[in-house]
């Protein structure tokens, strides 16, 4: 797959990035380099390779999943501009 200047212009517009017309050929070239690298990666045989979470082997720490209320209601409500009866108070928006 090859990215031309018009495609680079469209990608820049979709990404909401302003790219000057004289910079579009360089951008298209960078896109083509990235796509070439991705094509190289697709050639690698990964059958039997387990996914990694880190480059060094380690076990993830696990804990029992327990639902709690967090125990910090007062600390959280201290930051609220208006709190009543243990809840955030907000202006009424529906009549």
TrEMBL record:
It is an enzyme of class 6 (ligase). InterPro entries: Asp/Glu-ADT_sf_sub_c (IPR036113), GatC (IPR003837). GO terms for molecular function: asparaginyl-tRNA synthase (glutamine-hydrolyzing) activity; ATP binding; glutaminyl-tRNA synthase (glutamine-hydrolyzing) activity; transferase activity. Keywords: ATP-binding, Ligase, Nucleotide-binding, Protein biosynthesis, Transferase. GO terms for biological process: glutaminyl-tRNAGln biosynthesis via transamidation; regulation of translational fidelity; translation. Gene3D superfamilies: Glu-tRNAGln amidotransferase C subunit, N-terminal domain. Its EC number is 6.3.5.-. Heterotrimer of A, B and C subunits. PANTHER family: GLUTAMYL-TRNA(GLN) AMIDOTRANSFERASE SUBUNIT C, MITOCHONDRIAL (PTHR15004:SF0). Allows the formation of correctly charged Asn-tRNA(Asn) or Gln-tRNA(Gln) through the transamidation of misacylated Asp-tRNA(Asn) or Glu-tRNA(Gln) in organisms which lack either or both of asparaginyl-tRNA or glutaminyl-tRNA synthetases. The reaction takes place in the presence of glutamine and ATP through an activated phospho-Asp-tRNA(Asn) or phospho-Glu-tRNA(Gln). This is Aspartyl/glutamyl-tRNA(Asn/Gln) amidotransferase subunit C. It comes from Palleronia abyssalis. The gene is gatC.
